[in-house]
Amino acid sequence: MEVVIAPGPELARLAADAIERVLRARAAEGGRAVLGVATGSSPLAVYDELARRHTEEGLSFAGVRAFMLDEYVGLPADHPERYRNVIETEFASRVDIDPADVHGPDGLAEDLPAACAAYEAAIAASGGVDVQLLGVGTDGHIAFNEPGSSLASRTRIKTLTRQTREDNARFFDGDVSRVPTHCLTQGLATIMSARHLLLLATGKHKAEAVHQIVEGSVSAMWPGTVLQHHPHTTVLVDEAAASRLQLASYYRETFAAKPDWQGI
Ligand SMILES: N[C@@H]1[C@@H](O)[C@H](O)[C@@H](COP(=O)(O)O)O[C@@H]1O
């Protein structure tokens, strides 16, 4: 696991660099990159940077396929907080990706388990996710894999914890009763199948989760700790989110000594 401690705008640039590298490498070999996209506030600066590179530098997302991490169950199709709409607003509509290439679990399906299985099959059929953006909940959840999630889980229905619903109430006029109670989420094993994981966390409220994920024991109680088993995870954090890391000076020295060509 590689830990990078830097100011927010620098983190967004590094994440965009990693994504751009994959896009260019796939395009050069005549293939199609597969991008894992996430909701929440953490990836927003990355989408801003990717949109800027698209507009100002001609970075193209034509042919790129995107897979979302999760979706609320039951939010109406036109609800602005439906994750499909959030990704459309924050990312897809700002670049040249084909809307038909943006996929998410169908939280309005009549048969939700079948929708979860279909989503797993679609990810597999794409060849798998090249680079996956991730945020983290204050309780250490990634996507919507709440504490107690099986480390071997695949896309499925989950019940949201009170904590997550309270955290997300800010997107629903501060009214927790309007936050859906259920979601469909990629499982931890689904996320672990991606080739490169980029976890972004900023702010003091993420410090404990970041500490657990990077330095704690692997446990379903802190679902993000499963990332310790991934061969290529990059944890991008600002000073506040890094404030509980025991080996912070080691991570800083390691990154500062890294040659320019190595990237993240
Ligand atoms: N399902 C999403 C997660 O994917 C996200 O990581 C988390 C943290 O969001 P934020 O980045 O806004 O703190 O929020 C939600 O629960």
UniProtKB/TrEMBL annotation:
Any Pfam family from its record, for instance, is Glucosamine_iso
Which organism is this entry from?
A: Cellulomonas hominis
Domain Glucosamine/galactosamine-6-phosphate isomerase positions:
10-230
User: What GO terms in the biological process aspect are recorded for it?
Assistant: carbohydrate metabolic process; glucosamine catabolic process; N-acetylglucosamine catabolic process; N-acetylneuraminate catabolic process
EC number(s) given by UniProt: 3.5.99.6
User: Which pathway is this protein engaged in?
Assistant: Amino-sugar metabolism; N-acetylneuraminate degradation; D-fructose 6-phosphate from N-acetylneuraminate: step 5/5
Q: Which GO terms describe its cellular component?
A: cytoplasm
Catalyses which reaction(s): alpha-D-glucosamine 6-phosphate + H2O = beta-D-fructose 6-phosphate + NH4(+)
Judging by the UniProt lineage, the source's domain of life is Bacteria
Q: Which residues form a coiled coil?
A: none
Q: Which family does it belong to?
A: Belongs to the glucosamine/galactosamine-6-phosphate isomerase family. NagB subfamily.
Tell me the classification of the organism that encodes this protein: Bacteria, Bacillati, Actinomycetota, Actinomycetes, Micrococcales
Any idea which UniProt keywords this protein has? Answer: Allosteric enzyme, Carbohydrate metabolism, Hydrolase
UniProt protein name? Glucosamine-6-phosphate deaminase
